[in-house]
Amino acid sequence: MNETLPPLPIVKAGHPALRRPAAPIADPTADEWRKLAAQMVASLREAGGVGLAAPQVGVEARLVMFYVPPHRITDRPDDTVCDLTILCNPVIEPLDDEQVEGWEGCLSLPDLRGLVPRFQRIRYSGIQLDGERLVREVGGFHARVVQHECDHLDGTLYPQRMRDIRSLVYADELIAAGGLT
């Protein structure tokens, strides 16, 4: 079956799926998850984002996808380019206590940006759609995008992590003020 599946609409803040913990996936190799992942990839590409979690398309399941393009990596040696990665039941472990604030946006909060503290170094693991376990240790933007997407699985949106809600701004205003490129 090589049919192209249509993208799913991305839900916005306030949708019930974004407000509560998602259910674990019992069998990541089941066809339903491959189908959902294919539709989520189409949604991610259409929206132009770098990550998406199943609750963002209204599905309360612990599935995330993300990638790290070359222009997003930092100068940290553990911040690496990453091809599209799809994980079920991901787990994050901070590798130290260092947190850094950085600007984040979210496809479920269109046009907004906020300064969000995140752990700089993490180990993440999860089960891929072929049933294989994946474990990586990463830092910088790579660590940030994984933490952001996994927050969706716990019903958390990035403004809930912000230290100062006054840094929640519209992206075009931030760009106009020279604060984001």
UniProtKB/TrEMBL annotation:
EC number: 3.5.1.88
Cofactor entry: Fe(2+)
Record key words, sorted: Hydrolase, Iron, Metal-binding, Protein biosynthesis
Binding positions for Fe cation per the UniProt entry: 106, 148, 152
InterPro entries (UniProt xref): Peptide_deformylase (IPR023635), Peptide_deformylase_sf (IPR036821)
Top class in the EC scheme: hydrolase
Gene3D superfamilies referenced in this protein's UniProt entry, alphabetically: Peptide deformylase (3.90.45.10)
Active site: 149
Cofactor note: Binds 1 Fe(2+) ion.
Reaction catalysis annotation: N-terminal N-formyl-L-methionyl-[peptide] + H2O = N-terminal L-methionyl-[peptide] + formate
HAMAP family (alphabetical): Pep_deformylase
Function: Removes the formyl group from the N-terminal Met of newly synthesized proteins. Requires at least a dipeptide for an efficient rate of reaction. N-terminal L-methionine is a prerequisite for activity but the enzyme has broad specificity at other positions.
Family, per entry: Belongs to the polypeptide deformylase family.
The protein's name: Peptide deformylase
Record organism: Lacibacterium aquatile
